């Protein structure tokens, strides 16, 4: 599984790199339910989702081109509803809690035709079959989400007040932080302070 980092900006303005490990969890970076998710919400119109997809890990399979994306307002509502259910479900999984039935039902209902990668018969270059719709985006993420149920690698960052969810794709499987630049570093500083505090 290829790594794909995105540059995030915390509410405090700090910029850092984050790899969600899988597309469906990357989608949770667009916002979510409740005050935390709403503070990060970026999907207000169809263009917002299209723009966001241009830099997503869909590119790992084939380049995402704006003209190939066809996102309607209904698509956007569908994606947001799916994403919010996935947020609840993924957080429950990462915390070892039971997933609410209603959230699983939304995920099940979103499974459908996913975006189709194609190969140009002459140039052998890959592209996505147009149009890629919002429904297809949710469908792809829903399939991945179903694969994640029961995974021991789905984690929530161990940082204080950090809610980022990721799939740990590292070989040792010991990833704890959203990013070493952010929560990992804060933890190092805290450990250093508590050690030097104990020594003095
Ligand atoms: Zn974090």
Automatic annotation (TrEMBL):
Q: Which residues form the Zinc finger CGNR domain?
A: 153-195
InterPro entries listed in its UniProt record: ABATE (IPR010852), ABATE_dom_sf (IPR023286), Znf_CGNR (IPR021005)
Q: Which domain of life is it from?
A: Bacteria
Q: Tell me what this protein is called.
A: CGNR zinc finger domain-containing protein
Annotated source species: Kibdelosporangium philippinense
Upper taxonomic lineage: Bacteria, Bacillati, Actinomycetota, Actinomycetes, Pseudonocardiales
């Amino acid at each position: 599984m290829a790594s794909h980092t995105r540059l995030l900006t915390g509410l405090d303005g700090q910029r850092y790199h984050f790899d969600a490990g899988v597309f469906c969890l990357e989608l949770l970076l667009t916002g979510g339910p409740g005050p935390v998710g709403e503070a990060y919400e970026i999907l207000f119109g169809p263009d917002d989702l299209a723009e966001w997809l241009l830099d997503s890990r869909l590119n790992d399979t084939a380049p995402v081109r704006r003209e190939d994306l066809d996102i309607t307002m209904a698509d956007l509502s569908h994606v947001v509803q799916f994403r919010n259910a996935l947020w609840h479900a993924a957080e429950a999984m990462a915390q070892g809690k039971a997933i609410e039935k209603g959230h699983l039902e939304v995920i099940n209902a979103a499974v459908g035709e996913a975006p189709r990668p194609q190969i140009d018969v002459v140039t052998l270059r890959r592209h996505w079959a147009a149009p890629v719709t919002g429904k297809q985006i949710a469908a792809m993420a829903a399939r991945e989400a179903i694969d994640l149920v029961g995974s021991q690698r789905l984690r929530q960052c161990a940082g204080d007040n950090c809610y980022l969810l990721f799939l740990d794709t590292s070989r040792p499987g010991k990833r704890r932080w959203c990013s070493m630049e952010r929560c990992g570093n804060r933890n190092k500083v805290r450990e250093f302070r508590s050690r030097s505090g104990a020594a003095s």
